[in-house]
Each structure stands twice: as structure tokens, then as C-alpha cells.
Amino acid sequence: MQRLLPPTASHFPSMLQDIQKGKRTEIDALNGALVRLGEQQGIATPVNQTLTRLIRYKEEAGKSTPLP
């Protein structure tokens, strides 16, 4: 019998865990850094910028609204 799901299927990313706990994530060190580097080089990074803003929003919203 072949397993389709790895044994880690029930694990959740640390960023999700941080949001669920109302903590700050590492989004600024990851995607935020790419946005800053892009700005320095004159390269648009709209996807990274959007992801960074969405995660920051979720961080703020999580402080007042519990997530499932």
C-alpha cells in the first residue's frame, strides 16, 4: 500500500502557529526583505509586497479576533 500523505501532513507552518497564538511572524525577515531589496534595485515585487501586507494584517487582526 502506498502512502499519499507524508507523516508530517498534520504539522502546521510556524507562521500559521504564530498567527494563531497572536504573535508576530517572521514575514518581515522573509518576504519583507525581498520587498526592500527589490526597492533598492528598482525591481517591483508586487506578490511579495502583497503577501507581506496580508500577513501583517493577519497579525494585527489576530490580536483582537481569535482564529479557528
Number of helices: 3
Structural class, from secondary structure content?
mainly alpha
Strand content: under 5%
The termini sit apart by: 34 Å
Order of helices and strands: HHH
Unreliable stretches: none
Based on Cα principal axes, name the global outline.
flat
CA-based gyration radius: 16 Å
**Overall pLDDT metric:** 86
Q: Give the number of DSSP strands.
A: 0
Let me know the largest β-sheet.
Answer: none
Helix-residue proportion = 40-55%
Please characterize this protein's 3D structure.
With 68 residues, the protein is mainly α. The protein has a domain at 22-64. Helices cover 54% and strands 0% of the residues. The protein contains 3 helices and no strands. Helix 2 runs antiparallel to helix 3 (46-64). The longest helix has 19 residues, at 46-64. The radius of gyration is 16 Å and the shape is flat. The model has no long low-confidence stretch (mean pLDDT 86).
Features:
single chain; 68 residues; 3 helices; 54% helix
Summarize the structure in short.
This protein has 68 residues and is mainly alpha-helical.
Give the arrangement of secondary structure elements.
Elements: H1 14-20, H2 31-41, H3 46-64
Helix pairs in contact: 2-3
